[in-house]
């Protein structure tokens, strides 16, 4: 059993080791060079500089909070203007509990939850009682009508970091949730609170302030809020016609996007499967047809959803058809190619068994091939449905409509971030629902054990 | 040297190993026999710490190895080599690398991850392969070898660990007669030359009698026999094996029934 | 005994018939559901589309024909533009390559923690799986647009978006592959005293690497398409070039870019198919 140590083997082993080290060094070097090159190319060192901090914090804040605007004109200090998110039509008729008007000395107090206060006087604004801020700052206008911080004229650099005084504006932001801007003409306070206000019912709705469960119980309550229509309809209408959250548009857009994905995939699989049969050599003897179909599949796939949607956008205009057909065209190619390969890989024995019974061609395929490829077909179609749900959002943003376009629109306004977040969450939920449903359906239809 | 005190292992309600005590004073080659499901594998896996015992203690050089945690546990596993019925090599790596994996415990993570083995390690592995007649296959992938060859590679890997104890879990149950003999002879040689204790689960009686100095019989997770091979009467053996007795007795250890028993086990 | 048998056959036949009937009903219901979905969906589409289906259909070839007409009128020299846009194309491919590479690295890390045979702690496994679900559920565009808004126009937002999506999508496939890997080598190394990472490195990764590469190649192809589309909404590369020339209606340049894209996608398709075929063949 034991042999003399063979020098050839030792040499071969040492050589292999040397080769391994050489490959290691080369791959490491290439990877490092590529990494450094890419970091420079994508300008990662300047990431922090590019990152728009103000926008980012505003964005984040807007996602989970809402704000009220409190405005005072220096010319008319008694007329305090109160608006939700500064909206034109969202003016508060009654004072909220955190706003106190003091008739005696003509002041108005804006209270914050942390105990801090901004107090408007006809000639000044005072900042009081903020936690960890001991100095009571006072903001005034000088003779030229420019705002300044009392006691800090000429010493602007001494101001705390959360305060900025320029010639035309004094900006005060003790924390993310309080903001004061003093201009020559007006004073504006933004008061942030957590949550999505008016998500269920908007500012002017008769149901304003009702939560989800209140609304549900109201739906089945006989006492009509509005004698003209039933409570059920009222709740649904008021919810959908919410002017701040635009539920009807957003939800309909979501449905549109889902329809694009579902119909596109459905058409692709219904057209792709027969074509796949014609493109498989064990079904179609004519090589010319097969060749033509193969190239057709390549073309449909290769032109890609992007270009298809551009072409359909011109033909059908923005709308569902563009999305449906862009998806259907691309995936007819993909599914056709996949399925024709699956058909060619089917076990011949089944078909021969059927053939031996004297069945005709069509029946041979029906019982010899279809049972074998049906599970693949169903699971592939469902996989494409999942990825097409995401694709439909993207095509939508390129102009085909649906939630994608609304998302882009909301983002571009630059201040409706809560709507952006709302739509992003909606898309996330929809995609996850489709994923779960398709996984369930796959298991139900083909009984594939889902390995968990 | 090795002292197993009242080891038990329960899987839910099933008592796989029940209150087992074994004392090994001097280095010896021990065969554990018993029918399938008697708890032989579980016992070895408990000693190697692949599975945790429910209760009891295992003393090796007066240390309870069941108390070892993290680094100590890995160190123990390094000292206690294990050979499996299905070889448990990495199929896509070459034979030499497979053998050198026995040294993983002593290597730094970075060096191991980049497969930077030193020339000493390479030559040690080659020497071992040479000793077991596997040198020519050094650069082949493990998956291309026959079962017997793979088992010998597995023994090389075990030897690479510099073990103080070798556990072999049915090492020949998947092998043909010739390879089975080669593997058992190798194990015996290791024991004779290096004075390492070998504990070997065996399914056939002949093999145990032929190669081991001491035989332990297990039944339903308990030890029912522990003595010299010569003390094992046919009647006692029949009792230990129960319904599988005919298989275990039939022919020599090289019989075809080994494979049929194996199939039964996996079925 | 005899009569029992008869009864048995009858019951079996009855059951078979019932099963066949059930299947028929199921097929019938699913076909009805599909037809209903199709008709109602297309009706909604017809009602809400800017142009009607028929008018659209008749105009299907208008755009391609227009493009070729314009290209012809400007002297049929569109192929000269192919080289002009080659750098943009390379930049798009690089964007996809870089993000696939890093997406795959993150996916590998995530998938290790999402595999039951490697992590015994059920909570970590579930947490990693849910993380991957969320990562891959966001369409790239949503993340890319948000980052584009927050950090200005560049390729980076697209890269981040694709990395995130790729990490989730590949991570799921990777962890499935890991869980299907043979457990014996892992146990073999564990018995030698190999640490967790050493077991992963030497027992798991060699087993799954062909599958991983094949999945990653497939993802690369998908990501080239994705980075083109993200370019179209402002992330640079050939997509942005395409969106620019479409706005200015340069027929010949549009044709040149579309030609480049189609060629790239088709050749990438064949290339990755070839590589995957070799890898899987190698695996056997």
Compact overview of the structure:
By secondary structure, chain A is of the alpha+beta class.
Tell me the Rg of chain C in angstroms.
27 Å
Approximate shape of chain B:
globular
H/E element sequence of chain C:
HHHHHHHHHHHH
**Run of helices and strands of chain B:** EEEHEEHEHHHHEHEHEEHHH
Integer tally of domains of chain C: 2
Structural class of chain B: alpha/beta
**Intertermini distance of chain B:** 38 Å
Binned strand content of chain B: 15-25%
CATH class of chain B: Alpha Beta
| Strand arrangement, major sheet of chain B | 6-7-8-3-9-10
Helix content of chain C: over 70%
CATH homologous superfamily placement of the largest domain in chain C: MetI-like
Taking the sheet with the most strands of chain B, its summary is: 6 strands, mixed
So how many helices of chain B? Answer: 11
| CATH fold topology of the largest domain in chain C | MetI-like fold
Cα gyration radius of chain B (Å): 18 Å
Oligomerization status of the protein chains: heterotrimer
Superfamily (CATH H level) name of chain B:
P-loop containing nucleotide triphosphate hydrolases
Describe the structure.
- The complex is a heterotrimer of chains A (452), B (267) and C (284).
- With 452 residues, chain A is of the alpha+beta class.
- Chain A has 3 domains: 7-44; 66-194, no CATH class; 247-446, Orthogonal Bundle (MetI-like fold), CATH 1.10.3720.
- Chain A is built from 13 helices and 12 strands.
- Chain A has helices at residues 7-41, 47-50, 53-64, 212-219, 231-240, 247-278, 287-316, 320-344, 348-356, 361-368, 370-400, 403-413, 417-446; strands at 65-73, 76-84, 99-102, 107-111, 117-120, 124-128, 138-141, 147-149, 163-165, 169-175, 178-183, 186-194.
- A 6-stranded antiparallel sheet of chain A has the order 2-1-12-11-10-9.
- In chain A, a hairpin with a 2-residue loop joins β1 and β2 (76-84).
- Chain A is extended and about 105 Å long.
- Chain B has one domain: Rossmann fold, CATH 3.40.50.
- Mean pLDDT of chain B is 83; it is low at 251-267.
- Chain B is built from 11 helices and 10 strands.
- Chain B is of the alpha/beta class and 267 residues long.
- Chain B has helices at 40-48, 70-79, 95-100, 109-113, 119-131, 147-160, 177-194, 205-211, 234-241, 245-249, 257-266, and strands at residues 2-11, 14-24, 29-33, 55-60, 63-64, 80-83, 165-169, 197-201, 214-219, 222-227.
- In chain B, a hairpin with a 2-residue loop joins β4 (55-60) and β5 (63-64).
- Chain B has a 6-stranded mixed sheet with strand order 6-7-8-3-9-10, sandwiched between helices.
- Chain C is mainly α.
- Chain C folds into 2 domains: 2-58; 79-283, MetI-like fold.
- Chain C has 12 helices and no strands.
- Chain C has helices spanning 2-48, 53-58, 62-73, 79-84, 86-113, 122-137, 140-151, 156-179, 183-191, 196-235, 237-248, 251-283.
- The longest helix of chain C is centred in the first third of the chain and has 47 residues, at 2-48.
- Chain C is extended.
- The two termini of chain C are 53 Å apart.
- Chains in contact: A-B, A-C, B-C.
């Amino acid at each position: 059993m034991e042999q003399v140590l063979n020098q050839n083997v030792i040499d071969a082993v040492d050589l292999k080791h040397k080769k391994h080290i050489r490959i290691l060094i080369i791959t490491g070097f290439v990877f490092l060079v590529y990494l450094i090159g890419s970091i420079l190319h994508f300008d990662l060192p300047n990431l922090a500089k590019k990152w728009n901090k103000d926008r980012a914090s505003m964005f984040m804040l807007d996602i989970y909070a809402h704000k009220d605007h409190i405005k005072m004109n220096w010319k008319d200090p008694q007329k305090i203007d109160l608006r939700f998110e500064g909206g034109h039509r969202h003016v508060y008729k009654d004072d909220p509990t955190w706003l106190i008007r003091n008739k005696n000395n003509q002041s108005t107090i804006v209270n914050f939850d942390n105990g801090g206060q901004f107090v408007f006087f006809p000639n000044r604004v005072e900042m009081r009682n903020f936690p960890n801020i001991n100095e009571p700052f006072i903001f005034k206008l000088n003779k030229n009508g420019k705002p300044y911080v009392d006691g800090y004229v000429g010493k602007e650099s001494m101001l705390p970091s959360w305060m900025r005084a320029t010639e035309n504006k004094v900006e005060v932001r003790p924390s993310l949730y309080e903001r004061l801007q003093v201009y020559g003409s007006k004073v504006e306070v933004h008061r942030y609170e957590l949550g999505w206000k008016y998500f269920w019912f908007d500012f002017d709705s008769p149901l304003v302030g009702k939560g989800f469960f209140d609304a549900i119980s109201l739906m089945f309550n006989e006492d009509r809020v509005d004698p003209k229509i039933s409570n059920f309809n009222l709740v649904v209408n008021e919810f959908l016609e919410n002017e701040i959250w635009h539920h009807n548009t957003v939800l309909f857009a979501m449905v549109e996007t889902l329809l694009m994905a579902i119909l596109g995939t459905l058409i692709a699989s219904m057209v792709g499967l027969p074509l796949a049969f014609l493109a498989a050599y064990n079904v179609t003897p004519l090589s010319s047809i097969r060749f033509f179909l193969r190239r057709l599949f390549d073309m449909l796939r290769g032109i890609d959803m992007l270009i298809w949607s551009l072409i359909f956008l011109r033909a059908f205009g923005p709308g569902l058809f563009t999305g449906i057909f862009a998806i259907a065209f691309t995936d007819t190619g993909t599914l056709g190619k996949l399925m024709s390969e699956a058909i060619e890989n089917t076990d011949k024995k089944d078909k021969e068994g059927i053939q031996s019974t004297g069945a005709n061609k069509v029946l041979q395929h029906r019982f010899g091939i279809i049972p074998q490829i049906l599970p693949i077909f169903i699971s592939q179609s469902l996989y494409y449905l999942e990825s097409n749900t995401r694709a439909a959002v993207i095509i939508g943003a390129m102009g085909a409509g649906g939630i994608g376009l609304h998302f882009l629109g909301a983002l571009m306004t630059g201040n409706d971030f809560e709507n952006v977040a709302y739509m992003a969450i909606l898309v996330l939920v929809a995609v996850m629902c489709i994923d779960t449903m398709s996984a369930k359906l796959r298991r139900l239809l083909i009984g594939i054990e889902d390995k968990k | 040297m090795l002292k197993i005190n009242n080891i038990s292992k329960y899987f839910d309600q099933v008592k796989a190993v029940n209150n087992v005590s074994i004392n090994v004073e001097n280095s010896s080659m021990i065969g554990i026999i018993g029918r399938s499901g008697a708890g032989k594998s579980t016992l070895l896996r408990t000693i190697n710490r692949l599975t945790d015992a429910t209760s009891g203690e295992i003393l090796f050089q007066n240390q309870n190895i069941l108390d070892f945690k993290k680094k100590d546990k890995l160190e123990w596993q390094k000292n206690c080599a294990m050979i499996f019925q299905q070889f448990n090599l990495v199929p896509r790596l070459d034979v030499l690398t497979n053998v050198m994996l026995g040294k993983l415990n002593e290597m730094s993570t970075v060096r191991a991850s980049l497969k930077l083995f030193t020339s000493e390690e390479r030559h040690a592995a080659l020497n071992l392969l040479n000793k077991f007649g596997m040198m020519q296959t050094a650069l082949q992938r493990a998956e291309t070898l026959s079962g017997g060859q793979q088992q010998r590679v597995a023994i090389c890997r075990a030897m690479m660990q510099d073990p103080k104890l070798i556990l072999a879990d049915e090492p020949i149950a998947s092998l043909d007669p010739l390879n089975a003999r080669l593997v058992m002879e190798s194990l015996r040689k290791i024991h004779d030359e290096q004075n390492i204790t070998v504990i070997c689960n065996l399914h056939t009686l002949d093999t145990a009698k032929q190669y081991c100095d001491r035989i332990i019989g297990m039944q339903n997770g308990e030890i029912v026999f522990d003595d010299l091979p010569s003390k094992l009467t046919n009647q006692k053996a029949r009792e230990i094996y129960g319904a599988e007795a005919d298989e275990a007795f039939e022919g020599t250890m090289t019989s075809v029934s080994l494979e049929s028993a194996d199939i039964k086990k996996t079925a | 005994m005899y009569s029992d048998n008869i009864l048995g056959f009858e019951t079996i036949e009855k059951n078979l018939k019932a099963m066949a009937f059930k299947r028929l009903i199921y097929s019938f219901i699913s076909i009805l559901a599909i037809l209903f979905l199709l008709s109602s969906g297309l009706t909604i589409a017809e009602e809400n589309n800017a142009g009607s289906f028929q008018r659209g259909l008749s105009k299907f070839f208008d755009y391609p024909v227009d493009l070729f007409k314009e290209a012809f009128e400007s002297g049929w020299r569109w192929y000269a533009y192919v080289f002009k846009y080659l750098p943009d194309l390379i930049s798009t491919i690089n964007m996809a390559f870089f993000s696939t590479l890093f997406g795959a690295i993150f996916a590998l890390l995530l998938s290790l923690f999402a595999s039951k045979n490697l992590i015994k702690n059920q909570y970590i496994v579930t947490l990693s799986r849910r993380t991957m679900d969320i990562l891959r559920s966001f369409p790239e565009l949503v993340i890319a647009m948000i980052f584009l808004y927050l950090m200005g126009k560049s390729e980076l937002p697209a890269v981040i978006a694709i990395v995130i999506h790729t990490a989730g999508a590949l991570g799921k496939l990777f962890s499935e592959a890991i869980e299907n890997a043979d457990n014996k080598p892992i146990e073999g190394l564990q018995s030698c005293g190999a640490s967790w990472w050493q077991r992963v490195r030497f027992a798991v990764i060699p087993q799954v690497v062909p599958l991983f590469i094949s999945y990653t190649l497939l993802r690369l192809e998908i990501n080239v398409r994705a980075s083109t589309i993200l370019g179209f909404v402002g992330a640079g590369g050939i997509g942005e070039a395409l969106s620019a020339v479409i706005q200015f209606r340069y027929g010949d340049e549009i044709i040149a870019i579309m030609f480049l894209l189609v060629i790239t996608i088709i050749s990438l398709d064949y290339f990755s198919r070839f590589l995957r075929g070799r890898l899987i063949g190698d695996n056997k």
